[in-house]
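thought: fold this chain, then report.
action: predict
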Amino acid sequence: MPVRTEREGPVHVVTIDRPERRNAVDGPMARALGDAFAAFESDPEAKVAVLTGAGGTFCAGNDLKAMAAGDFPVPTETAPPMNVTRTALGKPVIAAVEGYCFGGGFELALWCDLRVASATAEFGALNLRRGLPCMDSGTVRLPRLVGHARALDILLTARRVPAAEAERIGLVTRLTAEGEALPAALELAREIAETPQEALRAARRSVIEQWSLSDRDAAANETRHAEAVLPAF
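observation:
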């Protein structure tokens, strides 16, 4: 299977497992990712997910051989290649990044709530160097994370962004030694899982939804979410 899942207590671990292709995305893998996160969302005992890659690589991007063979999802306005990147989960996801995180893999990491990376990780939209556009909301999420100018610098140069720079500009949440991204992400996930979940998820939804709202409407939306979970005193 191109994607493996396992449970570690309240943490749902999703592992991209195509190390022979540096975990590059093909059709079966894209579908398996969707299934894995649908299972996470529907599992009441799973509170946080961690997404990682096997073999010391997160995801090197879209599988060009699969694209040439026609074994790749055709993007549409409502369904990008990795349809999971349009999924609005009700629970947080942490990316644990080792090695390459390029192209579609970069966009997949941007979809996650938080990114924990090892010091040897590299990020970037290298797909642009091959004439392949961003198709999984990377051009939307990247500016919201690092700012307009920095996002354009990364996209227009299509360069490799080292982990230290990614942490400095806010793309990476936490930086670890080589080989320690997954253990650190699991520790962070367990910490999040210990927080009272209704209040945590209300805060998360407010943060996500505020981008399209005015200050007044965003504040009102925060109140609505809070009132829905506020305990009676």
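thought: worth noting. The first strand starts at residue 3 and ends at 8.
final: tokens above.
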